[in-house]
From TrEMBL, chain A:
It comes from Picathartes gymnocephalus (White-necked rockfowl). InterPro entries: SL1/TIF-IB_Component, TAF1A. Pfam families: TAF1_subA. This is TAF1A polymerase. GO terms for cellular component: RNA polymerase I transcription regulator complex. GO terms for biological process: transcription by RNA polymerase I.
UniProtKB/TrEMBL annotation, chain B:
Keywords: DNA-binding, Metal-binding, Nucleus, Transcription, Transcription regulation, Zinc, Zinc-finger. This is TATA box-binding protein-associated factor RNA polymerase I subunit B. It is found in: Nucleus, Nucleolus. One of its GO terms (cellular component) is RNA polymerase I core factor complex. The gene is Taf1b. GO terms for biological process: nucleolar large rRNA transcription by RNA polymerase I. One of its GO terms (molecular function) is RNA polymerase I core promoter sequence-specific DNA binding. Belongs to the RRN7/TAF1B family. Its main location: nucleus. It comes from the Eukaryota. InterPro entries: Rrn7_cyclin_C (IPR048538), Rrn7_cyclin_N (IPR048540), TAF1B/Rrn7 (IPR033599), TF_Rrn7_Zf (IPR021752).
Length: 412, 580
């Protein structure tokens, strides 16, 4: 308890840390600094038995305070980081890396690059081998900055190219950056991990220089190697690449399959559904219906008129052909309890009509088919639409009326 | 040493040195005017007159240091502490006579000075040439690691181990294990026999001297002054002269990393008094500050309670005999009497009185408070108070005091979290360690500067002036937050010419007292079993005295058992609520 009268160094510093934590959580930087000033003398005591020692605490807390405190400058920040680098050799590369991140956030690209180069050349006995992972990261980030430089040169070159000038020096430099970047980026993406930015940049480089095979291999590895953590972006990148390459619809579809599994609400689901709908294979069309229903389960898609139009297209097609009504039944079954309140309430009918007539049109059709012509949503919207003498709403009414019995078959 | 003249008074040649550096005859205590030159006037030399068996003592070492003994270090500490106390207003006698004599007596009894060297004991500390492996062959010589673990101060395992393994061979006359000559020997000594000196014990010495002089300061106050920095304790080695180099094992002895605990200092005090064969201390009489009647008055004021309660505390004190001279005065070596903690005792008396008058069962006191409130309301309309102030309302008192207590407690908690334990003077275990330690220190100072600037306007506040009162209540405040003058009229009644409490009940904290010798406590205080008002009151005094509530609880139990002794003997089997 706080009224513990037996007080020693250790307890006193524990209490101090609690105050620092409170202050940090409440963004009271001055107060946090005040208590940190009292905490730093812990450095003079040996805490080798603890998991997290005072030097690490001071590094992390100090970083937070200096980053946010209004009176602290970048110069002070860097000076502090340099001190922290000398404090713990086991942490040296980590501190370097974090320092670099802060410099990048502050727009100091050149300083960041210098720090990365410096860190890369660091050697310290067996520590070098132990901190191998951090070293790879440092090299990767340097590779990233090299890519950034390459990109700048490329843009210059393209500009000059437009003007009719050709600049050999710039071109040489550009190639130089490419080589440096490629080497490091290739290394890091070999290790299982989430390397979105590295992968993107590397693929960009490869594509520019025409090495599409390598790019394809990299993206496949990234998406399908089970050692790598499941990452929706990996599939997105692969898909986008394949699209750029003009691949067949089939390979595009297979690229998006896993994405649908892990992120059913992904924005690419519209593309996915569109491709699937048009397929000649029944299975694919069935999947398409599943995909679009699943996407509309998510609140973020409620007002997405495009998504609704996808659903409408498929539903219309199925209902008109009277084939595969059971598909709709299967999809509607788990949703019939909650979709009416979620999508088709009277309130939403009013709002959708006011804000987005196309949206209300699409939704009304779906509502009419799934819930029948007497449902609140359809009634309201179709009445409004007919009042406003909008042609398509008349068509809508006709269509739904014609197929009214469908909803009974579906919900039965 | 070189002084071979015969003493003018008794013709003996048996000289010793006073603290002033003057020779005095040990046989008849005649002090001469002949002084011995001291290298550094600040440095109180240890008055060892015997030569060291292995030869002349080298005064200077290579590094500008000199040989010094652990007890010399402690002597310096005591001197500094006594000076600080004098600055606080304690009479100079304490430093110049009482403490000095106690200390000399201690040195003599523990055979560190003023005596013949006991046979077989060499001053030579652990020889340097022995590494830890050699030590195994000699079972009497404990290893360095063992010595390090003997010390009471907290150790860093890694630093200890690295120190132990880094000991290297140096010349024979110096000990690398410590800057002092006998550091390792000191830790090796059998504690029980000779009552080895420690830092907390310096406070026991101080308090013993204060008690002897019956100075108006309690042990809890002394300890509070230590924590507040008015009395040197932490980092007191800063004041050692340059020539006294501390390193190695000395750090274990002189560097403390925790504040002294009341119980520890208190118990050592009694051990010490017995060890020194001291006679009965000067009497603690009714006019003494430490007498419960006086201390109760002080604490009542500090707790913002009505002065009228003082009558009651005196009555309780008288009834159970804890105001008797024989009970209060310290007689060292007397194992049958319970040792008296004057401050805790007085606080406990007040708690008992509050229980007598207000019951403190989380119901009755609030009921009484309501009645008082009613009466006060009626009276304000008439604007007449019979005598004394308004009726004392427990509720109001609780709110006012709780508020202040919370504020002070919060301040105290923050202060505790902000203590700076290190000082400018860095200490190192060994020379190898030195550069690392200095580098660290430099970094700490840099960081303190950097973040200190970002702390805003809050600067290191000046040490507040030491004061005896932590909570102050002024009658001049018109907001009615001072309760000293309030009247207990509403809760008292007259019976047979005597004022008694209207409250007919009392609940005992415990029906049976524990055996203190077995488990260290008379009773076991667990918060959940007692009413909130009781906690609050214990908490209040716990804050004022800076001790755990359980100590006050113990004294409360003791007092209650004395008070209700007769009834208890009869009614042990019944429930704990008694009728008075």
């Amino acid at each position: 308890s706080s009224h513990e009268h037996k007080l020693n160094f250790k307890k006193s510093k524990e209490a101090c840390l609690n105050y620092i934590q409170d202050a940090l959580l409440q963004k009271q930087w001055k107060r946090a600094a005040e208590f940190l000033t009292c905490y730093v003398e812990s450095l003079e005591k040996d805490y080798s038995r603890e998991r997290v020692g005072p030097s690490e605490m001071i590094w992390r807390i100090g970083t937070e305070i200096l980053w946010h405190h209004s009176q602290s400058s970048m110069k002070e920040f860097s000076c502090f980081m340099e001190q922290m680098k000398t404090l713990g050799v086991k942490r040296y590369l980590k501190v370097c890396l974090e320092h670099v991140f802060h410099l990048l956030c502050n727009g100091q690209i050149d300083e960041a690059y210098q720090n990365l180069s410096l860190a890369e050349s660091w050697r310290f006995g067996e520590q070098t081998a132990i901190q191998d992972k951090e070293m790879k990261l440092i090299q990767a980030y340097r590779g990233l900055l090299d890519y950034y430089s390459w990109s700048k040169q490329k843009n210059i070159l393209l500009e000059h190219g437009e003007d009719g000038f050709s600049d050999l020096a710039v071109e040489q430099e550009m190639h130089g950056y490419f080589r440096k970047a490629a080497v490091n980026l290739k290394e890091i993406i070999k290790i299982p991990g989430v390397w979105d930015i590295f992968v993107k940049c590397y693929v960009d480089l490869l594509e520019f220089y025409g090495d599409h095979n390598e790019a394809r291999q990299v993206l496949n590895e990234y998406a399908y190697n089970s050692k790598f953590p499941a990452n929706p972006n990996a599939h997105v990148y692969l898909y986008q690449f394949l699209k750029r390459q003009g691949e067949s619809k089939n390979s595009l579809i297979s690229a998006l399959k896993i994405l649908h599994d892990i992120v059913p609400s992904h924005e690419l689901m519209i593309d996915f559904n569109t491709m699937l709908q048009k397929s000649k294979k029944r299975k694919k069309r069935r999947l398409g219906l599943e995909v679009i229903f699943a996407a509309l389960d998510y609140a973020g898609w409620k007002e997405n008129a495009k998504a609704w139009s996808c659903l409408v297209r498929q539903v219309k097609q199925i209902v008109s052909s009277e084939k595969h009504l059971d598909w709709i039944k299967q999809e509607w079954n788990p949703r019939k309890e909650w979709w009416p309140a979620f999508h088709f309430s009277r309130y939403l009918a009013k709002r959708n009509w006011q804000e987005n007539k196309s949206l209300s049109y699409e939704k009304a059709l779906v509502a009419g088919i799934l819930l029948g012509k007497d449902c609140k949503y359809f009634k309201y919207v179709s009445r409004q639409g007919c009042k406003a003498q909008l042609k398509r709403f008349r068509m809508l009414k006709k269509f739904v009326n014609r197929h009214d019995p469908v909803h009974l078959r579906i919900s039965g | 040493r070189d002084f071979n003249e015969r003493c003018a008074q008794c013709s003996e040649v048996n000289w010793g040195l006073t603290d002033g550096g003057k020779f005095y005859c040990k046989s008849c205590h005649n002090v001469t005017e002949r002084t011995r030159e001291v290298v550094n006037t600040d440095f109180i030399t240890n008055s060892r007159v015997q030569t060291i068996s292995k030869g002349l003592r080298k005064q200077e070492k290579n590094d500008g240091g000199c040989e010094w003994y652990i007890c010399e270090g402690f002597q310096l500490v005591l001197k500094k502490q006594a000076e600080a106390l004098e600055a606080l207003g304690v009479c100079p006698e304490m430093k110049d006579e009482i403490l000095c004599n106690f200390w000399r007596c201690y040195l003599q009894k523990s055979k560190q000075a003023y005596c013949k060297r006991p046979a077989g004991e060499t001053v030579k500390a652990l020889s340097v040439c022995e590494s830890s492996t050699d030590v195994d062959s000699d079972p009497e010589r404990p290893s360095l690691l063992h010595l390090l673990s003997l010390s009471e101060s907290e150790g860093d395992l890694q630093t200890d181990c690295s120190f132990a393994s880094s000991v290297s061979k140096v010349s024979e006359s110096t000990s690398v294990y410590s800057g002092s000559v006998d550091g390792s020997l000191y830790l090796m000594k059998n504690q029980k026999e000779k009552l080895r000196m420690t830092m907390p014990m310096t406070l026991s010495f101080c308090y013993m001297a204060l008690l002897w002089l019956r100075e108006p300061i309690t042990l809890s106050e002394l300890l509070r002054f230590v924590v507040e920095g008015h009395i040197p304790y932490l980092n007191v080695f800063q004041h050692f002269p340059e020539k006294m180099k501390l390193c190695g094992l000395d750090l274990k002895i002189f560097c403390v990393e925790s504040w002294p605990v009341y119980d520890e200092v208190f118990n050592k005090l009694h051990e010490l008094a017995a060890f020194l064969d001291l006679p009965r201390f000067p009497d603690i009489t009714e006019s003494c500050f430490l007498h419960p009647d006086m201390l109760c008055m002080k604490y009542l004021m500090e707790a913002n309670l009505p002065d009228e309660l003082h009558n009651w505390t005196c009555r309780v004190v008288k009834k159970i005999g804890i105001g008797e001279v024989d009970f209060l005065t310290l007689t060292p070596g007397n194992k049958s009497t319970r040792k008296v903690k004057y401050d805790v005792l007085s606080a406990a008396v007040i708690v008992v009185v509050l229980k007598l008058l207000f019951l403190l069962d989380d119901h009755y006191e609030w009921l009484l408070s309501e009645f008082a409130e009613e009466r006060n309301k009626n009276n304000t309309e008439v604007c007449v108070f019979h005598s004394g102030g308004p009726y004392f309302e427990f509720k109001k008192w609780y709110e006012v005091v709780k508020h202040s207590l919370d504020v002070e407690q919060k301040k105290l908690d923050e202060e505790r979290a902000k203590y700076l334990w290190r000082c400018e003077k860095s200490l190192f275990y060994s020379v190898k360690n030195k550069s690392k330690v200095l580098k660290r220190r430099q970094m700490v100072v840099n960081l303190q500067n950097q973040f200190g600037k970002l702390s805003g306007s809050v600067q290191c506040a000046e040490k507040p002036n030491p004061s005896s009162f932590q909570l102050r209540w002024s009658e001049e405040n018109t907001n009615g937050s001072c309760f000293h003058g309030h009247s207990l009229k509403g809760i008292l009644q007259e019976k047979c010419g005597l004022l008694t409490a209207m409250n007919p009940d009392y609940w005992l904290c415990t029906v049976k007292l524990c055996n203190e010798k077995l488990c260290g406590h008379l009773a076991h205080y667990r918060e959940v079993e007692f009413p909130h008002s009781y906690h609050f009151v214990l908490g209040l005094f716990s804050f004022l005295l800076r001790i755990q509530p359980s100590y006050i609880h113990d004294e409360v139990c003791m007092i209650e058992h004395k008070l209700f002794n007769k009834k208890l003997c009869k009614k042990l089997k019944y429930n704990t609520v008694l009728r008075k």
